[in-house]
Amino acid sequence: MKHLLSVADLTRESATELLDEADRFEQALLGREVKKLPTLRGRTVMTVFFENSTRTRVSFEVAGKWMSADVINVSASSSSVSKGESLRDTAMTLRAAGADALIVRHPASGAAHQIAAWTAGQGEGSSFGRSAGSTSGGPAVINAGDGTHEHPTQALLDALTLRQRLGGIEGKRIGIVGDILHSRVARSNAILLSTLGAEVVLIAPPTLLPIGASTWPVRVSHTIDAELPSLDAVLMLRVQAERMNGGFFPSPKEYSITYGLSQKRMDLLPEHAVVLHPGPMLRGMEIASSVADSPRTAVLQQVTNGVHVRMAVLFRLLVGSDGGES
Ligand code: CP
């Protein structure tokens, strides 16, 4: 595996291997006062974020540092992007500066794929001459969220959390609720959870479903209360007002009444069912505070798993599956 751009590139076997690897990293660090493994010593990992982030950026940085990589954070606001430098020139500059891995978040769908294509090979056509990067064929590129397209490591950490909470994913019925239209988390989860054998139900108003949702490996429902009693897990999504150009239908109040996970709605779930949310949560809008803070909700477990999953992904891309100290 050279890059992680889409969960559609993962088979059930390769996804399961990544989840197993994440578990191994958790075990390797368990009880250690000093969380430092030598796995990526001498490797340079760059996070390149053109959109805001707390969880993804921080957990990639922690993952890299816990594996002894040199981690450099680049944000659009503090880089020469703010002076008008193009995405291509930025990517080629980071490659020439020695990146072994580029972890990319960008508002445009397909941006990570494009960067992987530009930075592949020996840098022909680059205006920056010979690359100083140590990874032959260009850096590994990890999609940390591209527009409304995909967020592969979020889906992997959600799958790991579901596996831990439910004992497995095969045959489980998982509802993804809310703003599917603008959600890269929804798409990546629908694909990955189906690949892992789950039955996925998208639950949303018609206005917040993408036109092509009927081609996804899922069932679609518009009625959350009818679905909750038969779900093993429910993944609540953030309503992404920043991608709606000021328009929002149904209104926030209507949305909250019709699709928000209130305490009363959570009580419709089976006893064993778990609640996930990728964060950031809009409390009182898509999820009630009492639900967000309930022990049945796995939000902070998702964050912790995010570090281990991102360690596994960096390890697989930069070291491979056949060795390296961990
Ligand atoms: N879940 C997620 O991607 O959160 P951040 O935007 O904080 O990274």
UniProtKB/TrEMBL annotation:
Domain of life where this protein originates: Bacteria
EC top class named in words: transferase
Stated family: Belongs to the aspartate/ornithine carbamoyltransferase superfamily. ATCase family.
Keywords: Pyrimidine biosynthesis, Transferase
Subunit composition and interactions: Heterododecamer (2C3:3R2) of six catalytic PyrB chains organized as two trimers (C3), and six regulatory PyrI chains organized as three dimers (R2).
Keyword Transferase attributed: yes
Annotated binding of L-aspartate, by residue: 83, 184, 238
Every Aspartate/ornithine carbamoyltransferase Asp/Orn-binding domain range: 171-315
Record's function text: Catalyzes the condensation of carbamoyl phosphate and aspartate to form carbamoyl aspartate and inorganic phosphate, the committed step in the de novo pyrimidine nucleotide biosynthesis pathway.
UniProt pathway: Pyrimidine metabolism; UMP biosynthesis via de novo pathway; (S)-dihydroorotate from bicarbonate: step 2/3
Gene Ontology molecular function terms on file: amino acid binding; aspartate carbamoyltransferase activity
The reaction(s) this protein catalyses: carbamoyl phosphate + L-aspartate = N-carbamoyl-L-aspartate + phosphate + H(+)
Gene Ontology BP annotations: 'de novo' pyrimidine nucleobase biosynthetic process; 'de novo' UMP biosynthetic process; amino acid metabolic process
Domain Aspartate/ornithine carbamoyltransferase carbamoyl-P binding: 2-164
Organism classification: Bacteria, Bacillati, Actinomycetota, Actinomycetes, Mycobacteriales
Gene name of the encoded protein: pyrB
Keyword Cell wall biogenesis/degradation: no
Pfam families associated with the record: OTCace (PF00185), OTCace_N (PF02729)
EC numbers, comma separated: 2.1.3.2
Name recorded for this polypeptide: Aspartate carbamoyltransferase
SUPFAM superfamilies cross-referenced by the UniProt entry: Aspartate/ornithine carbamoyltransferase
Gene3D superfamilies, sorted: Aspartate/ornithine carbamoyltransferase (3.40.50.1370)
Positions of carbamoyl phosphate binding: 55-56, 105, 151, 154, 279-280
Annotated InterPro entries: Asp/Orn_carbamoyltranf_P-bd, Asp/Orn_carbamoylTrfase, Asp/Orn_carbamoylTrfase_sf, Asp_carbamoyltransf, Asp_carbamoyltransf_Asp/Orn-bd
One GO cellular component term noted in the UniProt record for this chain: cytosol
